Amino acid sequence: QVQLVESGGGLVQPGGSLRLSCAASRVSRLIFSIYAMDWYRQAPGKQRELVARITREGTTNYADSVKGRFTISRDNAKTTVYLQMNSLKPEDTAVYYCKAEIGSRLDSWGNGTLVTVSS
Length: 119
Hints:
The chain contains 1 helix and 11 strands; from the N terminus they run βββαββββββββ. With 119 residues, it is mainly beta. Strands 2, 4, 5, 6, 9, 10 and 11 form a 7-stranded mixed beta sheet that branches. Strand 5 (49-54) and strand 6 (60-62) form a beta hairpin. The chain starts with a strand and ends with a strand.
């Protein structure tokens, strides 16, 4: 149903910054505003992990590994969620995925955007 497309990934040096975007389509602004939105990441050989979450009310949660460095935000008028990543570390290297919490098996995922932190 809802389509999610991530963008903004790329190669960045340690200590650098990137802003990821997740654009939702095939969904109205009102309905999008209801969904909690998540950012996950998956590094090679590791399980996919939740790194950030934002609710319809704007409440945010972060994995301990990214607290103080990452900020999740949303713009319901643009049906877009963002992940601002600062002070990037090599261990942040992963494919980052956006998810809309529509309802368990109905949850929508994007195809991911690759973030590589390396000198």
